[in-house]
Amino acid sequence: MKQLEMTQNSTSSLVTKAFLSIATILLLLLSAHSSLFAGSANNSASQGVPNSFFHVASWAASHSPLADPIFTDATVSAGLHTTPGFTFGDPIWGDFDNDGDIDLFVDNHYEKGSYLYLNNGDGTFTDIRPLTGIRPAGDRHGSGWVDIDNHGDLDLSTIHGARGGQSLGIKQDELYLNLGNDQFTNIAPAAGVTNTFGRGRGVAVADYNNDGYADLLVGNFRTNLVLYKNNGNGTFTDVTQQAGLGRLQYTECVFADYNNDGFPDIFCVVSEGHTSPKDILFKNNGDGTFTNVTSQAGILPLASGRSIAWGDYDNDGDLDLFISRGTDNGSLKQTLYRNNGDGTFTDVTDQSGLGIIADNRAAAWGDFDNDGYLDLYVVNSGSDPVGKGANYLFKNNHDGTFTDVAASAGVDVLVANRGRGAAWGDYDNDGFLDLFVTNGEDQTQFTSGPQILFHNGGNGNTWLKIKLVGTTSNRQGLGAKVTIQIGETIQYREMNGATGHFLSQGAGPLHFGLGQATMVDQITVKWPSGLSQVLTNISANQEIAVTEGQ
Description:
By secondary structure, the chain is mainly β. 9% of the residues lie in helices and 36% in strands. The strands form 10 sheets. A 4-stranded mixed sheet has the order 1-38-32-35, with no helix packed on it. A 4-stranded antiparallel sheet has the order 2-31-30-29, with no helix packed on it. Helix 1 (14-36) runs antiparallel to helix 2 (51-62).
């Protein structure tokens, strides 16, 4: 295990210190009291503090209350463009130059040139796209960071529309190979991933057959989606029909292993259009094929899904599912499914407090306050001629419910525009997730809008970030499952880029908030290859790299 970075946050409020002191005294008294009833036979053992005390004390420390972080607009100070733009899919974070700081790609659709923001490592960015070999513009929609050749650096996939269908048979998606030294070259034609007859919308990345190479799933509008299998030699093969995914017209798809069998499954929605197919869940059969299990899994026959976000919000070791919804002509109720752990889901939208009725776009899980529970950010798209309403930041209450704190946290984004994309990322490596939000809506009164970087001011909670490096498995570690344990409590993440997916997929280290804990007792990594690794006694407030088999 290689430590990449460590910083210590020593800030702690007097209230928190008082709480911990009182909790410790009470626990010691309870421990001593219980030993009196244990009988004389246990007197010698009761002279020390029982092991259970350390688990309880650890839990109490890691879940002590702290004030929520406040976000501030850092767009100008970070050197980002302040002119309005329009991102069709989410902006995507990813460390393409491997310097330990996450960079940012913003597609901007066809309104203007895309931005590739190089993180300077000092809280500022430089747009280097004009110098990189990446074309300035085009009918760009979704995008994704992916290491297609296992060389250890991120390549870039960009998905293109067909200008209303007029360029079908001519248009081409792009796949930019990372050459190093901030240079890229488009290899899509040679790689066989141009998607010429697809009105491209979204891209998802996973090693669906666990052969050690990342594959691509492209969502198309009113044309069939495409599954490209990576051949491991710089080329791909269209295996859509063989995989059982033929004749499906879905714009937004993601990979995630909902049943924990080691193979990434597929969930799809249609994020635009007046007549939408219903949400659909495909189980990966482990033999290169997929089976529609939507009904058996308890997924409701709903339509007009926008963004898909997989995350274990209740810390029970399996992925739950949030779907933002909306239409160009009206508002819909959002959806939260709790994973039952047996291959089925339960709709808990209303009891969770997430049953808002709105026209929403991007949604993303992230533990913004580092309290050990995933929170949820949702972008309000709004309507013409009014524009957008406030975005939502749903704080996890640790009991299966959520409370909107966007206004008090400073990320409600009340601008006269239409909301679009969002992505969490710790750009300054202080251990707290920052937020990049985009606005503007195609074919509305608000075609372009401001793009805003919100800096997370943090609190006294601790954190851990984990970068995965596959060897037998794909280099990115896509599909790997990570469980951390502190005392008797766990947190679970899957490296799938699906914690917040709106047509686009970012890449970055897994982030865990730890509350007030200073040590993680155990980290378990289950790789797609079948290998499991266990690390113990890992200090908080650092980023570590876990290399498969080392």
